[in-house]
Amino acid sequence: MAQQVINNSVVVAVDMRRQVLHYYTMLGDDRASISHRVKNYKAKGLEEDFFAKMKDALAAFVAEEPFEETQKAVVVMPDETVALDCLRLPNMRNPKHLQNAVNVKLSEIYKNRAELKLLAVLADKNRQFCTYNVAAMQRSILDSVTAVCAEQHLIAEPVTYASASTAVAVGVLAPQYKTATYLFLDIKDVYSRFIFVSAGKTVGFFTLPFGLEFLSAKKCKQEDMLFDHRYAELVVINAKERAKSKKLSILAETSDLASMQIRSLQEEEDSEETLKKGKADKGTQQDIKVLAKKTPRKLPQFMLRPTPTDAEGVMQENFRIFVKWALSLLQNNTLLTAPNTPKCVLVNLPQAYQHIFDKLAEEEKETGVPFIRFDGADDDQDLANHLELFGGLYVKNFPASAKF
Predict the structure, then answer these.
(1) CA-to-CA distance for 128 and 383, rounded, in angstroms?
(2) Distance separating alpha carbons of residues 327 and 364, to the nearest angstrom
(3) Are 377 and 151 in contact (CB under 8 A)?
(4) Which residues share a beta bridge with 119?
(5) How far is CA 390 from its chain centroid?
(6) Are 186 and 166 in contact (CB under 8 A)?
(7) 3-class SS of residue 43
(8) How confident is the prediction for the chain on average, in pLDDT?
(9) How many CB atoms sit inside 10 A of residue 46's CB?
(10) CB burial class (10 A; 0-12, 13-18, 19+) of residue 110?
């Protein structure tokens, strides 16, 4: 006998950046009944250990608020688990031929297609071209999420991702944006997320590693200090060192005598390296290559803006980095913006930051794009901080391209 499914709204969300699991519920459409619970976990990525932690957390959530029958739950996964793409193909009169062309193109792009669940939804069509929104997620992740939820009598339906759910929340809280085209900037505490929304549907996203903590800093910060590229720089240095060794080995292949000489040198270097390690074990300090502490890039005076002297001025100046990224993303992602031109950059910030947008309005003619503060959740700060959770409550509003 099939189990009865009840309809109370449940959202389960994974936050990999903070290593947090969210359990978000609401009775009917009563926002006053929203319950938001959080549990921390420690696991790297989405490996087997993570799903064991997810299982324990869900069991604890359900035990705190038990239900008797099987219940549906929307699972909001991190954007990092999804690959988004946009296909533009020549239009064809025969729908079957067009679908075959889509399948061929997808197989070319995703060599591991058998391991993925792919969603390809027609987004725009004219006499010459058809544009498809594509989303992909690993089947192994979907299967693991479904299995973990099923153990707690939760049906994971659908599984989606944070940016898609955020766009749904914006449309619910501010209906004028339900079918609008815009770039949404969701500024969190320690990171920020740009979301390309076309006709109400998420078609792309981009994340920056800084958020409110940076925006609220007491001093202006240079952009290059907001990114940590030390590991990349170290990889480049090591690659150069390996490239030098590679060059020697290639030269050595030109003659047997050279090969013998190089082998002899390498053996001597290996012996010296072993000796150095032995000395290090005894506490002898060795010469070690280390990267210098990062310092702000020095710019010529003519490239610098006057330094603000008040808190609002500092905040406005720091926000210019977000403006630069927004304009750059709009300019360099024409495939996403071609079907529909974004009307604005909509920014999720509390009312206390309105002065930033008042200042930007003076420069709108120069940038060509209005920056507007999203005020749809001013009455509930927790909701504003977790739009991706609130959006998950409205499954009927989700487009086909966001439901795995």
Answers:
(1) 43
(2) 12
(3) no
(4) 135
(5) 18
(6) yes
(7) coil
(8) 86
(9) 20
(10) middle
Residue with tokens 């610098």: 304
Convert the pLDDT of each residue in 73-115 to its tens digit: 999 999 999 999 999 999 998 999 999 999 999 999 999 999 9
Q: Using an 8 Å Cβ cutoff, are 141 and 46 in contact?
A: yes
Distances in whole angstroms, Cα of residue 305 to Cα of each of 50, 313, 314, 367, 371: 46, 12, 12, 17, 21
Residue pair 220/308 in contact (Cβ under 8 Å)? The answer is: yes
Q: Where are the alpha helices (DSSP H) in 11-47?
A: none
Question: How many other CB atoms are there within 10 angstroms of residue 331's CB atom?
Answer: 9
327-376 confidence digits (pLDDT tens): 999 999 998 998 899 999 999 999 999 999 999 998 888 888 999 999 99
Share of the chain above pLDDT 90, in %: 66
> What's the burial of 143, exposed, middle or buried (CB within 10 Å: 0-12/13-18/19+)?
exposed
Q: Write out pLDDT tens, residues 114-165.
A: 999 999 999 888 889 999 999 999 999 999 999 999 999 999 999 999 999 9
| Residue 192, H or E segment | strand 192-198
| Residue 13 identity | A
Beta strands in 342-385 (DSSP E): 345-348, 371-373
- The full DSSP string for 292-358 is PPP-PPP--GGGPPPPP-SHHHHHHHHHHHHHHHHHHHHHH-HHHHSSS----EEEE--GGGHHHHH
The DSSP-derived string for 373-390 is E--TTTT-HHHHHTHHHH
For 345, phi and psi rounded to 5 degrees? -105, 115
Place of tokens 């944006």: 177
Cβ–Cβ under 8 Å, residues 21 and 34: no
For 399, residues 6+ apart whose C-beta sits below 8 A from its C-beta are: 121, 164, 200, 201
Strand, helix or coil at 70?
strand
Residue among 244, 234, 245 nearest 290 (CA): 234
Spatial distance between the Cα atoms of 316 and 349, rounded to a whole number of angstroms: 13
